[in-house]
Amino acid sequence: MTYLSTLLTGVATVAIAVTAPAAAQTAGDPATLPVAPPAADAPPGDEIVVLGFGKSRQVQSVTAADLSRLTPGSSPLKAIEKLPGVNFQAADPFGAYEWAVRISLRGFNQNQLGFTLDGVPLGDMSYGNVNGLHISRAIISENVARTDVAQGAGALGTASTSNLGGTIEFFSDKPRDTLNVTGGGTYGSNDTYRGFARIDSGDLGGGLKGYLSYGFLTTDKWKGAGVQRQHQANGKIVKDLGSLGSLSAFLNFSDRREQDYQDLSYDIIRRRGLGNDNIADNYPLALQIAKVAQNQAAAAAGAAQPWAGVGTAFPAGIGTVDDVYFDAAGVRRDYLGGVTFDANLTPGLTLRTTGYYHDNKGQGSWITPYSPTPAGAANADGTPIAAASPLGFRTTEYAIKRGGALSNLAYETGANTLELGGWYESNSFTQARRFYSMTDTATPNRDVLKFQDNPYATQWDGKYTTDTIQYHVGDTLRLADDRLTLNAGWKGFTVTNRAIMLPATTSPLAVGRISAKDWFQPQAGLLFKLAPGTELFADYKENVRAYVSSATTGPFSTTQAGFNAIRDRLKPERSKTAEGGLRFRQGPVQASAVGYYIDFSNRLLGFANGAGIIGNPATLNNVGSVRTYGAEVALTYRVFTPLSLFASYSYNNSQYADDVLDARGAVLVATDGKTAVDSPEHMVKGEMVFEQSGVTARVGADYMSKRYFTYLNDQSVPGRVLVDASIGYRFEGDGPLHGVSIEGSVTNLTDKGYISTIGSNGFTASGDNQTLLAGAPRQVFVSLKKGF
């Protein structure tokens, strides 16, 4: 907090010093204030997809207009799932339930990508809250103005040390120039209620304007018992400093509480169907299943059964103790804020500096039959419970306090634009595994949607710090009357990870220090305009992924002996990507085609010890390389003014290039030549949008071929086609209904039963695994919106 205060105070002090004379210069008629022109590459607001013209790398953008065509509250990630190379999976209709959300680009999974919001790093957006937060908590979806997807090579200065396979950058909306109030409400399947309201101040004088907004979502789970609920608030303020630049600040809040869906295996699906779920509405049954399982374990060990009179036979329809659990949930509370100063130092010299801070508190809970509650354990109010229970309440608890600053200095002279930038972040992350009591009573004594108090045991309680220093240097050269653009540069970083265990815990997990360093990661690209509307592009980049500091992933998520064995020989993951393609634009047609090759080396694999949900320490090792090549094609066609079409096709071939070997060099898993897990070979997406005279209609289809969820490719989920649609009307003209719009939307229009997320509990070498999640069935929503 002290670091953050110093950082933000420093940025604000510089801004105030500049603001004072600027305010004096611009006092008077607001109409005389200079207005910054839009960026040259800013996409038009009514396009379905913007194909990145003028870029020397594969980039596509979707805008707020595109996101508004989805059901309100949908994750910004859901808006980009139609882009080529993007594999997006979710178990809910909004794409916001974090345990199930997975996104990958060209075979790289979520924690190998880079994510930012207005340049502020979001970490790898992993579920476990190690170094950031998910975009669905970072900002209300209605406040997202644009999302840029770079499938292969993110911008050189992206604040990320995990972007092996591309970046996804989100940009927030700007405050309106005039006073404005907007609001909307949604109702739909499973008692879904969604509300949103925003007020813009308009220009308050001297170029000062801002907005405040609030969003709320509550919905019952589409199967099983439980709810998923979120409160969000966003605030942003901007001060135009005239010729000197601008100052902006934002503060975003999120409180999310979501009960989980049950992870499935093929065995469970065969016996109980895709509708199998936790039994949060039947506590007595959960107690009975746990007692039977513990009696079975005692009988197998030749010991006395702990639960007399219950027996060793599961109730009808239950095959194993893992078929159904009582309940599980995730609760998260986040504050994310930042201050940005854009300074025009001279006519050709600009400096952009951002200071930011993120505070997070979270708990992931599971009411488990594997950790029964002993008699005398503390109840929620701190008093001891009288009798033992076959169930226990296990949590993984998180707290993040991270702050940082990023700055970019750009100098334009003639045909050259030179850039020099840096990023520093200090992340203090605490993570604990605790156990809370459950009672052997008719109703449960704890609510999974609340932060828990009074644990009776702490298995481990660790503090993990990550210090990141990154810099970049780049040059862009425009030649031949801007027909040829060359850019080249490099970035480098050093990331130091430390782990200590806090007192009063006896932990099996590792402590110590490890670091990743690479001061030269080159990147180069070219853009050549063959003719007006036709351009060739190519680029090459190298990236390294730093380690993460955590008890549940990364090098510290093993025993001390395991960490000591790998600390001096572990290598960070590395990728080398080359891509090239063509873009074409003429009249109503835009198209792009790209081919790519990726050499991914030093792949890290955590060898699981037991079922993923049990939480045994894993062992991390480098296990070889992956070779990937593929192609992507995208096309937009405005058939006539009201009707637009978009289609994309992706081909991806990702194969392991080595076998997994044990410490003696013997083959442990024969992965050489096998297809990488969760990397579909073919994806085809299409969308049609009609907009005229207030009428809006959209239909989209998404095909994905089969995906493997074992390294030996003996288990896979089949391909599927999903269809979404929406239709709406906006009242134009004068009268009380002016600005009112009503919209109906349907997800999974054909009510397809399918497996969506794979790898929720990781991947295994072969065989079935409880690591699958079912996709939501058809869901219907009606939304009403009004702007004042």
From TrEMBL:
Limits of the TonB-dependent receptor-like beta-barrel domain: 313-749
- GO CC annotations? cell outer membrane
Q: List, for all copies, the residue spans of the domain called TonB-dependent receptor plug.
A: 57-166
Q: Does the keyword NAD apply?
A: no
Q: Which GO terms describe its molecular function?
A: siderophore uptake transmembrane transporter activity
Q: Which Gene3D superfamilies match?
A: TonB-dependent receptor, beta-barrel domain, TonB-dependent receptor, plug domain
Q: How does it sit in the membrane?
A: Multi-pass membrane protein
Q: Which InterPro entries match?
A: Beta-barrel_TonB, Beta-barrel_TonB_sf, Plug_dom, Plug_dom_sf, TonB-dep_rcpt-like
Compartment list: Cell outer membrane
Tell me the keywords, alphabetical order: Cell outer membrane, Ion transport, Iron, Iron transport, Membrane, Receptor, Signal, TonB box, Transmembrane, Transmembrane beta strand, Transport
Q: What is its main location?
A: membrane
Q: Where is the signal peptide?
A: 1-24
Tell me the protein family, please: Belongs to the TonB-dependent receptor family.
What this protein is called in its record is Iron complex outermembrane receptor protein
Q: Which organism is it from?
A: Sphingomonas aerolata
